Amino acid sequence: MSTGGALPDTCPIGWQPNALAPVFFGARSLGPADGAPVPLRIFFPSLDGAVESAPILAGCGRYPLIIFCHGHCIGDPDHHRRWFRLPAQLARSGYVVVVPRLAGISSGQSPSVADHPDLATLQAVAGWARSGWEHAAVLLPPPATGLAGHSYGAMLAARFASTRPVAGYAGLSGGWGDWFGDAPRPLPLLDLPTLLVWGGAGDLFTQLSDAEWNQLRRPRHRVIFAEGEHWDYLKGVDVPCRNSTGACPHLGPAVDDLVTMFFGKYLPPEFGDGLPGRVPTSLAPPPLELTPEQEFFAGGFLNGWDALSGHPACAAGVSAVTELLVANRRTRETHSLERPCRFVALIGERNRQVVGTRPTGYHWCDFCFPRRADG
Ligand SMILES: [Zn+2]
To answer: For 181, which of 41, 106, 112, 286 could close a Cys bridge (C-beta 3.0–4.6 Å)?
Structure first.
């Protein structure tokens, strides 16, 4: 997905925004009257701080698309509008983020039932972003698509991602224990990097057993907030369906940081070539190394994860299982040892290099990684 080339001289700043070098963001609320398939909010990078009128930052390379799926909140027909802080941070990090209104989920329709209407909505939203939206040209083509969601939305997003070219999936408190419909459980079907976050005993139906966790493909990341509650991601936001609140004041911003690091590692923007190697496996944000020009844009960015430390109620259990990779020094190609192609057996001892992440300047083997067609 990255070209490794130079930033185009059409870019008014000296870098393409990414998860370790942000800009500001803009957002628009659009709907069918604007040509969008459903009411939605779209977030994008900008150099302007006036969110609702801020122009998009174009000419600095293309951005991946991330679609965020809201959950079911009784009494909140426009629940998609409550999700603002997370898509804003992702937009600052070099993503175009769409948060659509999902009518089926809003009406309480379980994502586990056959023919869920919101699957067609997600398909329409992804198609519209890349062809109908006025700034469609800033988007990287598939598979540079990320899916994320909360609760029912996490379940629906996984189902969507399991059958389409998607580069990464982040699920927040998906109700996996409440998957009762006819559709197959999507998590074991996902052939892509995953991040799963859930809370404590009060975060009902969201806990995966270790057996289910071990069924997930690598690389997989899991963060469990022992005292987290179901709606803590939206702490401070008016959510009428909230029935209890956890004691950790920073859970939401901390999860924003995890999701930002996750996509930075597995779905970098067009010129984010060195980014994946800079994000640690823990997904804890590393210290930012910014120029004075970049510092100007970095206020309030990635402050959530570090704020957890010292708060007993904010304890987070982090686990990750990374890919087993081998790089061929001669062809500068990175293969998978879990799904190896026939070339892996042919790499001589002198050229074989076991690596944690794809080295800079190497490309993914098309046979081991059919979905990572990044040259
Ligand atoms: Zn291979």
So the answer is: 112
Token digits of residue 8: 């185009």
Strands 65-69 and 40-46: unpaired
Q: Is 0.70 surpassed by the pTM of this model?
A: yes
Q: Are 350 and 343 in contact (CB under 8 A)?
A: no
Q: Residue 345 Cα, ligand 1 centroid: separation in angstroms?
A: 9
Q: Residue count of the chain, please give it.
A: 375
pLDDT confidence of 368, banded at 50, 70, 90?
confident
pLDDT digits (tens, 9 = 90+) for 61-98: 999 999 999 999 999 999 999 999 999 999 999 999 99
Whose tokens are 């909360």? That residue is 150
Question: Domain spans of the chain?
Answer: 24-286+302-321, 325-364
The full 3-state SS of 316-348, as one line of letters, equals EEEEEECCCEEEECCCCEEEECCCCCHHHHHCC
What spacing in Å lies between the alpha carbon of 163 and ligand 1's midpoint?
A: 22
Instruction: Please tell me the distance between residue 342's alpha carbon and the centre of ligand 1 in angstroms.
Output: 7
Tens-digit pLDDT profile for residues 7-39: 999 999 999 999 999 999 999 999 999 999 999
Question: What secondary structure letter does DSSP report for 8?
Answer: P
Query: From ligand 1's centre to the CA of 372, what distance in Å?
Result: 12
Strands 363-364 and 333-336: parallel
**C-alpha pair distances (Å), 310 with each of 200, 256, 347, 365:** 19, 19, 48, 43
CATH number of the 24-286+302-321 domain = 3.40.50.1820
Compute, in angstroms, the gap from residue 130 CA to the centroid of ligand 1: 30
Give residue 161 CA to ligand 1 midpoint distance, Å.
23
Pairing type for strands 325-328 and 316-321 reads: unpaired
> What is the 303 CA–ligand 1 centroid distance (Å)?
39
Q: How far is the CA of 347 from the centre of ligand 1 (A)?
A: 10
pLDDT digits (tens, 9 = 90+) for 216-262: 998 999 999 999 999 999 999 999 999 899 999 999 999 999 999 99
| Residue with tokens 């991040």, as numbered in its chain | 195
Please tell me the predicted confidence (pLDDT) of residue 371: 67
Between the CA of 352 and the centroid of ligand 1 the distance, in Å, is 12
**Which residue, among 325, 332, 275, has the nearest Cα to 2 in the 3D structure?**
275
User: Quick check: 68 and 86 in contact, CB under 8 A?
Assistant: yes
